């Protein structure tokens, strides 16, 4: 739109910066009109100015290739619509510690463990708890492995959560995406034993009634949905 205006009304002397800022504002306003979540607004506002700013800085092209590679290694499955990496807060880790205590759990699985924001504090607190941490994205998995190298009861696996058998686990934790909760609910119902506990951070399983919901006072005001099988 901004480029069209600049082309059709050159007498208005649109500077390049004006065009990109204007384009960002139009994109941000349109995103609200199409009910995109609010967190898209700064992305729309900053994307073109950032691209223009970087092009002015004249970085060598390998910098962009390297950046792309690092992002691909961190946000591995995102291209295919998978869940990106967001880290749980320490309040979530504390809440999971209290749940392990309350459940007298002897095994714990985290589906998509990221860099270990939950499993590392848990393993340090419960030295005898058998923990399985699944993470598919290469860079978070590598960081997770390094963080868990001295924690003998933690098994870190670089495989998909869909390939993990949940039948022998007392307590399963996931912080994924609303897009997968139906499918994950099916897996949990099929595989987890009666009496065990499934905890989903932030995203409820559609149509399931949680046994309890823990409301945490972290920045995101995280809700932990606890489902008794
Ligand atoms: C929202 S992050 C949560 C990270 C961590 N659980 C935490 O609470 O800090 C979701 C994680 O799940 C991982 N993930 C997504 N799909 C996966 C899959 N199919 N198998 C294993 N991990 C997956 C992502 O790479 C990402 O690290």
Notes on the structure:
This protein has 229 residues and is an alpha/beta fold. It has two domains: 2-58, no CATH class; 90-228, Vaccinia Virus protein VP39 (Rossmann fold, 3-Layer(aba) Sandwich), CATH 3.40.50. 44% of the residues lie in helices and 14% in strands. The chain has eight helices and seven strands; from the N terminus they run H-H-H-H-H-E-H-E-H-E-E-H-E-E-E. Helix 8 links the parallel strand 4 and strand 5. The longest helix has 18 residues, at 16-33. It is elongated. The termini are far apart. The model has no long low-confidence stretch (mean pLDDT 90).
Quick synopsis:
This protein is an alpha/beta fold.
Brief descriptors of the model:
229 residues, alpha/beta, Rossmann fold, 2 domains, 8 helices, 44% helix, binds S-adenosylmethionine
Main beta-sheet annotation: 7 strands, mixed
| Average of per-residue pLDDT values | 90
Sketch the topology as an H/E string, one letter per element.
Answer: HHHHHEHEHEEHEEE
Q: What is the annotated CATH architecture of the largest domain?
A: 3-Layer(aba) Sandwich
Sequence of strands across the biggest β-sheet: 3-2-1-4-5-7-6
Low-confidence stretches: none
Cα(first) to Cα(last) distance is 53 Å
Radius of gyration: 22 Å
In total, the number of domains comes to: 2
Percent of residues in beta strands = 5-15%
- Global morphology: elongated
* Class based on secondary structure composition and strand pairing: alpha/beta
Care to count the β-strands? 7
């Amino acid at each position: 739109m901004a480029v069209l205006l600049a082309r059709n009304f050159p007498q208005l002397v649109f500077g390049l910066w004006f065009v990109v800022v204007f384009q960002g504002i139009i994109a941000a306003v349109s995103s609200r009109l199409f009910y995109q979540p609010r967190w898209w607004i700064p992305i729309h506002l900053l994307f073109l100015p950032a691209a223009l700013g970087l092009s002015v800085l004249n970085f060598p092209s390998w910098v962009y290739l390297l950046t792309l590679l690092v992002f691909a290694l961190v946000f591995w499955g995102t291209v295919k619509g998978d869940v990106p990496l967001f880290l749980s807060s320490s309040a979530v880790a504390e809440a999971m510690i209290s749940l392990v205590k309350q459940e007298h759990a002897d095994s714990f699985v985290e589906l998509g463990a990221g860099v270990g924001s939950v499993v590392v504090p848990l393993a340090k607190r419960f030295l005898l708890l058998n923990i399985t941490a699944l993470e598919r994205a290469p860079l978070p998995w590598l960081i997770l492995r390094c963080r868990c190298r001295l924690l003998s009861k933690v098994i870190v696996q670089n495989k998909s959560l869909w390939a993990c058998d949940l039948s022998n686990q007392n307590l399963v934790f996931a912080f994924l995406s609303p897009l997968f909760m139906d499918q994950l609910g099916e897996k949990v119902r099929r595989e987890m034993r009666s009496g065990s506990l499934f905890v989903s951070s932030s995203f409820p399983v559609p149509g399931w009634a949680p046994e309890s919901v823990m409301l945490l006072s972290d920045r995101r005001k995280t809700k932990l949905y606890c489902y008794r099988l």
